[in-house]
Amino acid sequence: MNRTPTRRKRRLSPASTQPRLLAVAIAFGSTLLFLVLVLVLLSTSPPPAPSSRLARGRRSSASTALPRCGDAGLGELGDAMVSMLPKDLPFTVFVPSPGSFRRVLKLQGSNASAAAEGDDNTSAVLSRVLGFSAVPRRLLAADVPPRGPARLLDSVSGLRIRASRDAARGAVVVNGVRSVCADIVRGETVVHVVAGVLMDAEFERSFAVESDG
After folding, report:
1. Is 105 left (phi over 0), alpha (psi -120 to 50) or beta?
2. How far is CA 82 from the centre of its chain?
3. Is 43 part of any domain?
4. What's the start-to-end Cα distance of the chain, in Å?
5. 24 falls within a domain
6. Cβ(183)–Cβ(190) under 8 Å?
7. TM segments (predicted)?
8. From CA 160, how far away is CA 44, in angstroms rounded?
9. The CATH number of the domain where 200 resides is what?
10. Higher pLDDT residue, 40 or 100?
């Protein structure tokens, strides 16, 4: 009768559980210290540097920003040409710059006023150039790939246009003619001002003959 209580007292004695509690406390303290050190390292370490591919992509996008300008970049003749398009249908137009109108087509801003007053010759020239330059769809500069094959487009008049983008300068290039302004939005129409005139060989020869004469 006296042995059983003695054995129970030995099993429940606090002295026997002290080493086990001490081991648990040490393990818990070590884990907590490890977590604290990890948090300190994470809070003090600098943010990870972007990968080389991502860094190259950011530098590329910064260095190839596309040239843009407002409606003033169109000039009077460009504005008159774009106004010939229906405003509720999507178009993309590669409009000659004011300098290209003067150099290639021998037209100046005063011709736009003359066309508005009924100058059939100026209106006919603008209409023909519009047919060569207008594509029946919206095409922003970002839609033109900077690398790879050129994008093939058909103008309203049937002229085949090869559109690409200069990866170094970010300009849109159509049939070898580079843009000076991009993404001028006029309702449903997107306008790119280019440093030249898009036209077929026959129309180009007609202006060459007039210049020689």
Report:
1. alpha
2. 23
3. no
4. 138
5. no
6. yes
7. 21-42
8. 59
9. 2.30.180.10
10. 100
Q: How many domains does the chain have?
A: 1
Domain extent for 200: 74-209
Q: Report if residue 30 sits inside a domain.
A: no
Model confidence pLDDT, tens digit, residues 56-86: 333 333 334 555 676 667 889 999 999 999 9
Q: 206: which residues sit within 8 A by CB, 6+ positions away?
A: none
HSE, side-chain direction, 13 A CA sphere, residue 155: 23
User: Taking the mean position of all CA atoms in its chain, how far away is CA 126?
Assistant: 30
Specify if 18 maps to a domain.
Answer: no
pLDDT 10s digits, 96-144:
999 999 999 989 877 666 656 666 788 899 999 999 999 999 999 989 9
Q: Which two tokens stand for residue 172?
A: 């849109």
CA atoms within 13 A on the CB side of 72: 1
